[in-house]
Design goal:
The complex is a heterodimer of chains A (254) and B (397).
Chain A lengths: L9 H21 L18 E6 L8 H10 L10 E9 L4 E4 L17 E10 L7 H5 L5 E3 L5 E3 L9 H5 L6 E2 L6 E2 L5 H4 L6 H5 L5 E5 L6 H8 L2 E2 L11 E4 L7
Parallel strand pairs in A: 1-11
Antiparallel strand pairs in A: 1-9, 2-3, 2-4, 5-6, 7-8, 10-11
Chain B lengths: L4 H8 L2 E2 L12 H25 L9 H14 L2 H6 L8 H4 L6 H35 L2 H10 L8 H34 L11 H28 L6 H32 L4 H9 L3 H25 L4 H27 L1 H4 L6 E2 L10 H23 L11
Antiparallel strand pairs in B: 1-2
Classes of the chains: A alpha+beta (254), B mainly alpha (397).
The complex binds iron/sulfur cluster (2 copies).
Chain lengths: 254, 397
Amino acid sequence: MAIKKENFSRRDFIKNSSMFAGGVVLVSLLNPLKVVYATKKPKGKGKWYGIAIDIEKCIGCANCARSCKAENGVPNEPFFFRNWVEQYTITNDDEVKVSSPNGGIDGFTQPVSDDEIYKTFFVPKMCNHCAISPCTQVCPVGASFESPEGIALVDKSYCIGCGYCVQACPYGCRYIDPAQGVADKCTLCYHRLEKDLDPACMMACPTGARIYGDLNDKTSELYLFIKENNCAVLKPQLNTKSKLYYKDLSQEVH
Amino acid sequence: MNKYESLYEALANLDGYIYPNEIALNWDLLIVMYPYITGLVAGAFILASLNRVFAIKALRPTYEISLLTALSFMLVATMPLITHLGQPWRFYEMLVTPHLTSAMAIFGFVYLWYLMVVLLLEIWFDYRYDMVIWSKQKKGFMSFVYKVLTLWVLDTSPQSRRTDEKIGYFITVVGIPSAFLLHGYVGFIFGSIKANPWWSTVMMPVIFLFSAMVSGIALVMFIYMVVTYLRKQKIDMNTVDTISKYLFYILIIDFSLESLDQIHRIYEADESFDILKILVHGKLFFTFFIMQIGVGVIIPLLTMGTMMIKKPREKIRKILYLIISICVLVGIFYMRWNVVIGGQLFSKSFYGFTSYKVDMISGSGFWLSLLWFIIPFFILAFLLWLLPPWKKKESIH
Ligand code: SF4
Ligand code: SF4
């Protein structure tokens, strides 16, 4: 299965420009008020991927982060991650402490003593595969795009490495690959999905805290999980229509 | 030296929590230079237009200098952006296959429109007649060069001069909104990023525009004085007094707009407020309060204000104007710095900060930035030699 990417040819450009003005008006008229979650793909019958994380089940082992680096050739330095784990500790004095030593790969310690902890938990982070992704919107050449399955991808042979998408992602999910000078990010292991294999992080999680699947399929584990649990997305106010759902997400998590 | 050394240093000095991908600042000094230089272009051009459209006599000696300054900086305006790309050789993709929802892609077209349609044409119509004359006066190669520059439109009749004048005027009128667009657009590149509360404000294009005018006017004032001094001519005090008056008023507008933006933030105090407050009082204290506001606004405003009430002697005025223009130029540079760098120092998680140091030794950013700032002055020197405003025949407007 090849990625059907909308490539921007010169002809499209002319066509698009003329349709642009009309399009803006139309979209603003036709887009009704929707829930903050993008549980449904707007159109089409194919797969529409989403991810859910059961925060309670995450033990902070960061196997997901480790396996992601190995699978996707992410640089080893602690400045480049497609996938990382954060530890949140809220003290009795309402102080929020967050840490993620080397994305969690170096293991977590808890500097706050037990009787001062109000609550503590781990939050794995990765690309939210936003349905209205700001990163795609700003890319000057269209190298960042959404696959028909709702996965935000980068065409590295086309990316000019301007870093605009890195600035536009509200969740810090992108980085510029130092070796290639182009943007890189989680692809939900697109290369594995193509072969009907699970993404590396999903395979690596020992507790089953991570679920992914087809939001269009009403019988999928993911769909039922979101339906049966109280799930929330990160920064809903930014209206990115994130498709990464967290079960029982604490408000402190940004 | 390890290329990650500065990053490890930043990592060791993190304040609070920051998403791991945010430790590295993606947009460095070069991206500070980009709006800075574009702003100088827009500002210098707007000064020229003021002079022409409103026929402000006192500004006449700076008309051509403003235009040529705008052109010199315009020619390198995209270079900081391009040299900053991870894949610089792919930059043309932005023009041949632009992505229409991207502010950065559209900038390429705004830029080309401004450079090709407005700036070059205006200069050409302004100089065409003189270039015809010069092509006749000069011999050999230079005669040929001027002839090429006239594009072989060699008519010198009064009729043709009037046409030049009319079209030139029309272009200036079109040019003003274009200059507004050019720099407003640069503001929009930042202002439209909803992920970043320090950038995301509708005021951004307007603030960028006015700060552009301020910096452009200061630059022209500086260049006019230095060039006139180097030519051993007398500086027209009426001219610099008038420029300084404009600078004064526009600086007030600019400062009011920026204050409005800040007051609005402080009063609304939304979820990002706490982190931005710490940012401004901590990591940005020096660049924001001291450089941008102190050096860039307070000192120039106070000095110019006092000079309006009590005019000092010419000699002192000259020195003060020179100092003011430098202060303003420095202040606006730090304004760009505070926007671009400041916007990346805090984490979008709102839980902490990274740090940034200009890497003068191993990083290419610093030297390239310096280069892109210096080259325009050489271009300007060349243009002033090729198209000396002081050798123009008095135009008919
Ligand atoms: S999380 Fe960031 S990188 Fe992923 S789709 Fe959303 S904006 Fe893009
Ligand atoms: S870095 Fe690449 S993918 Fe990101 S906005 Fe720039 S060109 Fe697009």
